Amino acid sequence: MRYLTAGESHGPQLTVIIEGVPAGLTITAEEINGELKRRQGGHGRGRRMQIETDTVEILSGVRHGKTLGSPITLVVVNDDFKHWTKIMGSEPISNEEEEEVKRKLTRPRPGHADLNGAIKYGHKDLRNVLERSSARETAARVAVGAVAKKILKELGVEVAGHVIEIGGVKATIEHHVTIKEIKEKAEISPVRCVDSQVEQEMKDCIDEAKKQGDSVGGVVEIIAEGMPIGVGSYVHYDRKLDAKLAAAIMGINAFKGVEIGIGFEAASLPGSQVHDEIIWDAENGYRRSTNNAGGFEGGMTTGMPIVVKGVMKPIPTLYKPLKSVDIMTKEVYEASVERSDSCAVPAACVVAESVVAWELANELIEQFGKDQMKQIQENLEEFRAYSKQF
Ligand code: EPS
């Protein structure tokens, strides 16, 4: 499968075309909308989310609630566009209109794509960069993720995420968090945290940042349960599934690091305390007594839960802006202030779930058949039985 998203933050809509979704998958706009709503929430979101009620329109590839096997087109309309029709219009404008209409930006925000993107494409108006580099695009990726999650669900795999740190406030978690626990606790938490003890502290940290005109980042953890053994590859470096997941997480706006399993902690432990012992019983087949590897060995799944962490930096649009240089005058100025969130970590957690779900669904389809959901289900069932007895 593959997909392409298009759309500017204040343009008319976000569009995505997904190609290669097998036929016979049950999917409705309502299911996708549920995921879009989850992305819009979380303590620390800014005013844009009060303007938008993200809903999807399915324009192709689905008939009467089932996929056809043809490309699926999804559209999420930007309600805010009505305030930006002139500024973001596609028709040419006169020189006189330009000053009035364009809301030209010339002071790049440190930490954003503004300066590098402007130099790359030769834009003297930074809005030409900002509009596409905005995290608004992640709404399209969550819509795609909703389709991927549905594929996974029909194949017995579930993905869920939770927030483990915001602005230095860490959740105390001394066990492997399960999807059941995430659904029961994180799903109702305004910061998507399973540890209700630190919830208030995380909220206070976000509120304080907002009061100061500042922003905070954090860490999310994504869990996937139900993956069969041996998905991915040890044969080629670019087919290792853990590497694909790392790239997918790093591809989310503002993400700066990834860990799989115990991740960086493995550097300081002896091998005997890192590697997971292999056990077998007739009911469950091969399992591990621990899961430090986070569900991966040799670029392939071990059948244990997949555990991936992602680090998000604080959003760089600051109401208390940092120093910058005006690209027209070269004078020192404070950076432009565009509307912003003081913290988007809980929302980014939903985006991270989505991109992980996509990679896993894609890999299962690669390995177990491409055209029909029913065939893929049968092939997978057979493989699960085979690997249990192996
Ligand atoms: C976002 C949409 C954006 C921002 C935010 C996330 O809309 P606007 O720029 O109109 O406020 O609210 O994105 C950023 C702060 C950013 O730096 O990318 C969204 O839909 O999630």
UniProtKB/TrEMBL annotation:
- Indicate which residues the UniProt annotation says bind FMN: 132-134, 253-254, 298, 313-317, 339
The UniProt keywords, alphabetically, are: Amino-acid biosynthesis, Aromatic amino acid biosynthesis, FAD, Flavoprotein, FMN, Lyase, NADP
What's noted on cofactor binding?
Answer: Reduced FMN (FMNH(2)).
Catalysed reaction equations from the record: 5-O-(1-carboxyvinyl)-3-phosphoshikimate = chorismate + phosphate
- One Pfam family name is Chorismate_synt
Cofactors that this protein relies on: FMNH2
Pathway field: Metabolic intermediate biosynthesis; chorismate biosynthesis; chorismate from D-erythrose 4-phosphate and phosphoenolpyruvate: step 7/7
Q: Which GO terms describe its cellular component?
A: cytosol
One Gene Ontology BP term is: aromatic amino acid family biosynthetic process
Which residues does NADP(+) bind? 39, 45
Q: What class of enzyme is it?
A: lyase
Gene Ontology MF term list: chorismate synthase activity; FMN binding
* Family matches, as NCBIfam families: aroC (TIGR00033), PRK05382.1 (NF003793)
Record family assignment: Belongs to the chorismate synthase family.
Binding partners and assembly? Homotetramer.
Annotated function? This reaction introduces a second double bond into the aromatic ring system.
Q: What is the name of the protein in this document?
A: Chorismate synthase
- Origin organism of this chain? Gottfriedia endophytica
